[in-house]
Amino acid sequence: MRVSNVTVRKRLTVALIVGILVFFIIDLRLGYVQFFLGNMLTDGAKELWSRDIPFEPERGEIVDRNGVPLATNVSAPTVYVVPRQIKDPADTSEKLAAVLNMSKEKAYQLITKKASSVKIPEGQKISHQKAKEIRALEIEGVYIGEDSKRHYPFGNYLSHVLGFAGIDNQGLMGLELYYDEELKGKKGSVKFYANAKGERMNDMADDYKPPVDGMNLRLTIDSKIQTIVERELDIAQAEYNPDGIIAIAMNPNNGEILAMASRPDFDPANFRNVPPEIYNRNLPIWSTYEPGSTFKIITLAAALEEGKVDLAKDHFHDPGYVEVGGARLRCWKKGGHGSQTFLEVVQNSCNPGFVELGERLGKEKLFKYIRDFGFGEKTGIDLQGEGKGILFNLDRVGPVEQATTAFGQGVSVTPIQQVAAISAAVNGGTLYTPYIAKELINPANGEILMKKSPEAKRKVISKETSDGIRYALENVVAKGSGKKAFVEGYRVGGKTGTAQKAQNGRYLENNHIVSFIGFAPADDPQLVVYVAVDNPKGTVQFGGVVAAPIVGEIMGDSLRAMGVKPRKEQIEKELTWMDSPMIEVPDMVGMTKKDLGELYLNLKIDASGTGNTVVKQTPQPGIKLKEGSTIRLYFDEED
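RE: above sequence
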């Protein structure tokens, strides 16, 4: 059958239109792929060709309040292998094993893995000398990546607070863990390109993505005070061989921790060789125990605030014990203290006197103040592992429980709770949240990214009550059980504590935690220091004998380091037969050697200069020194 020309033309037209449409659709698709998907597909292809050598970021440094580095980084290269680029696995494994001190079999397994790149564990964070030896081998497919490892320049110093980081620079304990997200930074890399056989494509330039370093962390810690605390704890460790020691120094006016330490301690760089029960327990915030007589400050604060006692006018007779609910609670002094004012009750740390204050308050009021001062809950300090202590449930508090709580027995508290609470008692009555991290800083430009401000939780007592507490506790140091914490030239207040340790529901014999908490200057507190010594050996286990002298040494040196000037005005210390008399240094400038010969002083003189007249002296006039101390005199030069 013959097809007409019209039909043919129609068919050709339709075919042409269809062809044009097909080519148009193909062109559209090609244009879409070229202009819209091109970059994505190219990047995808490059990803298939690419091999990454990671560049680790530098972990942020941790520094003290004055910028002294406490945790830093040191360069430590890492070895990577691209298995497909290894041409002779047997020879390569033998060479790597020799340099990296690993078996040839393990090296062979790693470099023949079916992976784009492999990190060699024995080649992680190696020395620069080792890295130089690896480069000298000139093995194709073996690369050195830039890496770093954590460095703690002062060793055991502040170890429980700083914590430590692992092999991959991840925070594992302490501040390193608490602020890990801010400290760790973001990884970078060098990206090179290889074909399907794994061979490097030298016609394509490498891509470098720089790492983003972690933020620096500035602490509230003052390394000068921390050094003093560490020194005194080392001395106490050597002298008493205790089961443990705890020390905290804090600014009572804002909650900033100035120093924190404990024993036993450890070297953060060597934590793998330390039992976990040592590095996992930051005792100043973790441990809980009966506080003993340091807790009496809370009872005293409550009684003063509620108007239940006049320290100067009210009297109390202590026969050496008190009968409560059928139980006889004894004073630490056999035979008692006899008749005394309540100021003397505080000075003498008299248990029956504080039982009387507890009875005047009643259990509801007493426990209200205990909780208001922060006991029974975590302080909220920015360290992990904080304990919260144990208090009696109010419905289970009978006369005996009320009485023992009033003098610090039968309750369980943490050291950091005590420091925060006593700080509130002496700072005018405000309870602050303790904190140890002050600022997060961008290391690239010094920009402050986070700044922590003091957090006042609540007003616990009035300023007038706080004034009364400071006066009473200053008398404790000058005239009472805390005499060994007395610091010449500084008004120090404080309270001793001696607590029995319980085990299996029974108190241990001759096994106590002895403590002292002090503050200064007593009229304007700038520093609170707490020290507790667990089971000191070879000594009488009393807080006033063991812990008070440690606090005194820390307090005196720390106040001088802080620039707090000594003053003449302080309550005169009541001397015992063991105390050396103090001599006030006279003004000797202008005196001649003949004048000095007529001046009777039981002081040694260290002279400098060849002249006859004193032109300068150290220390300055008015400072009190122990008999037999040395003063330095500078004489003018002879003509």
